Amino acid sequence: MKRERPSLFELRQLKCIADVQFGIGSGDVLFSNDILVERSKSTKRIRYVYLNQYRICSYRVTDGFLVLSLMGGELLHSANCGNKVVCHPDAEPFIRKSKSLFSQHVLESNKDILVKDEVIITSKTNEFLGVGTAKLSSQYMQHLKRGVAVNTRKGKKN
């Protein structure tokens, strides 16, 4: 696929989506002026966003949300943006293997996490572990002792 620079309108649109989805300022963290986009062959819509040849996120056309890759999660984590879930040290090896995070292993989470939100999984020492999709809201993550809290999409290897 051919990668190209987005138009100014598309760049602003991506930044606005990121600000709504991950918090104000996230768009500037994720999308600098030197990003490249890859488009769908048939619809010509943006599918993937790259920074320095690494994919930082995908654009999900069905609902208009951004789906983070490991690089995108690390960028948000380093800038202290995004919805974060802190996991118990016992669960860290499983997160690194991209396994689900269960609610009994959730120590903390941002209060505004809702079901299907993109989240950043961190350790107790604030080390980036991976990215995933919330299966429970923040309130239930911390109070329930059974069930999947976050479906881990990708875990960061050691």
Automatic annotation (TrEMBL):
Origin superkingdom: Archaea
InterPro entries per UniProt: PUA, PUA-like_sf, PUA_sf, TGT_C2, TGT_C2_sf
CDD domains for this protein: PUA_archaeosine_TGT
UniProt cross-references to PROSITE patterns, sorted A to Z: PUA
Domain PUA: 83-157
Pfam families attached to this UniProt entry: PUA (PF01472), TGT_C2 (PF14810)
Molecular function as annotated in GO: RNA binding
The protein's name in its UniProt record: PUA domain-containing protein
Natural source organism: Candidatus Heimdallarchaeum endolithica
